Amino acid sequence: MMAASWIGRQVARLLPDARPGRVAAEVAAPVTGATTEAKGAAQHERPTRERLAASLRHKSEAMSPRMLRRTLDELKAIIDPQISEVEGGRRARELIARYARATLARRRDVWLLMSEMFTADPEKMKVAQAHFAVAVGTPDEAAAEVQYRRATVSPRRRLLQRFSVLPEGIRFLVDLRGEMQPYLKKDKRLLALDVEMEYMFSTWFDVGFLELRRISWDSPASLVEKLIKYEAVHDIRGWEDVKNRLDSDRRCYGFFHPRLPDEPLIFVEVALGDSMAASITPLLDERAAASDLERASWAIFYSISNTQPGLRGVSFGDSLIKRVVETLGQEFARLRHFSTLSPIPGLRKWLGQSVARLLELTPEAQRLELGRALGVESPGAAHVLQALDYVATLDTRAPLRRWLLQCAAHYLGRELDQGRPLDPVARFHLGNGARVERLNWMGDPSPKGLQQSYGLMVNYLYDLKRLDRHRAQLQEGTIPAASVIEELQFRA
Question: Cα–Cα distance between 272 and 277 in angstroms, integer?
Answer without folding.
Answer: 10
